[in-house]
Amino acid sequence: MKKNVLILLATILGLSSCATKNTNLDLSTVDDFDINRYLGEWYEIARFDHSFERGLIGTKANYTLNQDNTIRVENSGYKDSFSGKYKTAIGKGKFANKDKPSMLKVAFFLWFYGAYNVLELDKENYSYSMIGSNSDKYFWILSRTPQLKDKDKAFLLNRAEERGFDTSKIIWVEQR
To answer: At CA 104, angle to CA 98 and CA 106, rounded to 5?
Structure first.
């Protein structure tokens, strides 16, 4: 009986995950990615809603290279307003694929790594990037400046739609 219940649960979970997965999603990452040019401070311009960032504004990410070639990830932001509580999370990034340096993985808790894939990038100046995971659940637009140029914003929104992301779910992050 227990075995039948477990099989039924596994089947239901498996079918529900298939039903919600976007199979038309293009998660290919950029070529010729230079981690040293990518390091430094980035402003979060837009994102999908996640419980771990809910209510945060003025969010930033800062990436630095550790001596062991891992990446120190420091994410920060203000809760609800710029006078709200300032929150910081420190994580660790690693290259997920040695042949594809634009595919990374990041953990903020123990060894629970999530995909951090650089989907789009201003390859000339490294002034903006579009980040995704291995599904359509996570999405970010980052910029070196608190405001993204309208032409770059339009380009990234268009690319996000072409890649299969639901851009109606985007939250525009207040920056100053």
So the answer is: 135
The domains of the chain are located at 29-172
Measured between alpha carbons, how far is 118 from 90 in angstroms, rounded to an integer? 20
156: helix, coil or strand?
helix
Beta strands in 35-134 (DSSP E): 40-47, 56-65, 71-79, 86-95, 103-107, 113-121, 128-132
Torsion sign over Cα 152, 156, 157, 158: positive
Greatest distance between any 2 Cα atoms in the chain: 61
Tell me the two tokens of residue 133.
Answer: 């995971």
Q: Can you give the pLDDT at residue 22? A: 66
Q: Give the CATH number of domain 29-172; options: 3.30.830.10, 2.40.128.20, 3.40.50.2300, 3.50.50.60.
A: 2.40.128.20
Predicted pLDDT at 21: 58
List of the chain residues with pLDDT < 50 = 1-20
154: three-class secondary structure by DSSP: helix
What is the SS3 assignment for 123? coil
Which residue bears the tokens 């140029």? 149
Looking up tokens 């660790």, which residue turns up?
92
